[in-house]
UniProtKB/TrEMBL annotation:
Belongs to the ATPase delta chain family. GO terms for cellular component: plasma membrane; proton-transporting ATP synthase complex. Coiled coil: none annotated. It is a peripheral membrane protein. Keywords: ATP synthesis, Cell membrane, CF(1), Hydrogen ion transport, Ion transport, Membrane, Transport. This is ATP synthase subunit delta. InterPro entries: ATP_synth_OSCP/delta_N_sf, ATPase_OSCP/d_CS, ATPase_OSCP/dsu. F(1)F(0) ATP synthase produces ATP from ADP in the presence of a proton or sodium gradient. F-type ATPases consist of two structural domains, F(1) containing the extramembraneous catalytic core and F(0) containing the membrane proton channel, linked together by a central stalk and a peripheral stalk. During catalysis, ATP synthesis in the catalytic domain of F(1) is coupled via a rotary mechanism of the central stalk subunits to proton translocation. It is found in: Cell membrane; Membrane. One of its GO terms (molecular function) is proton-transporting ATP synthase activity, rotational mechanism. It comes from Ureibacillus chungkukjangi.
Length: 177
């Protein structure tokens, strides 16, 4: 779940990236930053610890992320200043959502019993994208055998459940009363 604080930082970074026409580049750098943090949680611990001075933490960030977009590095340094390093993941998620909305797309999670083919993903993207007013959906496919068949599509707060399991559950409620 994204926090209000992360949303504010993401909004500010998004506006700056939009002005500099670097939304895609910043988005990629933030995704890489999240991967680095997920694979090395010690980095966040190091940046959050009071043992090192803020200047030393900023120096570490500028060395580790030397090839990243300066806007991302500056945002990370700002988070260090404000002692909000733990918001990096939420900030990246919020930024990704803002970037997708600006491009007329949205994130979608599709639950199915097997991996979807590219053509099936495209078909789901065009069909369900129209339902929520988006041109394109970026689909994450999660394999969930318990649904028995069909698909469940989650786009933001919308859930479209066309699974065999939900149909059986509805039938059971109807028959039992």
């Amino acid at each position: 779940m994204s926090s209000t604080i992360a949303n504010r930082y993401a909004q500010a970074l998004f506006q700056l990236a939009l002005e500099k026409q670097a939304v895609a580049e910043v988005n990629v750098d933030l995704e890489e930053l999240v991967k680095v943090i997920e694979t090395t949680p010690e980095l966040v611990s190091l940046l959050a610890t009071p043992k090192f001075s803020i200047e030393r933490k900023k120096q570490i960030v500028s060395e580790v992320f030397a090839t990243a977009n300066p806007m991302v590095v500056n945002t990370l340094e700002l988070l260090i200043d404000k002692k909000r390093v733990n918001e990096i993941g939420n900030l990246a998620k919020s930024f990704k959502t803002l970037a997708a909305e600006a491009q007329g797309s949205a994130e979608a999670t599709v639950y199915s019993t097997r991996a979807l083919t590219d053509s099936e993903k495209d078909e789901i993207s065009s069909s369900f994208g129209k339902l929520v007013g988006k041109e394109k959906l970026t689909i994450t496919n999660i394999i969930e055998p318990s649904i028995l068949g069909g698909v469940r599509v989650q786009i933001g707060n919308y859930i479209f459940d066309n699974t065999v399991a939900s149909k059986l559950d509805n039938l059971k409620r109807t028959l039992v009363g």
